[in-house]
Amino acid sequence: MSVVETITRGVREDGLLAPARAVVVLLSGGRDSTCLLDVAAEICGVGAVTALHVNYGLRASADEDERHCGELCARLGVELTVEQAGPRPAGNLQAWARELRYDAAALLVLSRAADIAAGHTATDQVETILYRLASSPSRRALLGMRPRDGSLIRPLLRFTREQTGEYCSQRGLRWRDDESNDSDAYARGRVRHGLVPALREIHPGAEHNVLALAEILRDEAEVLEILVEDELAGRAEIELEQLRALPAGLARLIVQRLADGVEGRPTPGTGRRLDDILALHGIGTTHLDLPGGVRATAVDGTLSFDRTPDISREP
Question: Which CATH architecture has domain 3-202?
Answer without folding.
Answer: 3-Layer(aba) Sandwich (3.40)
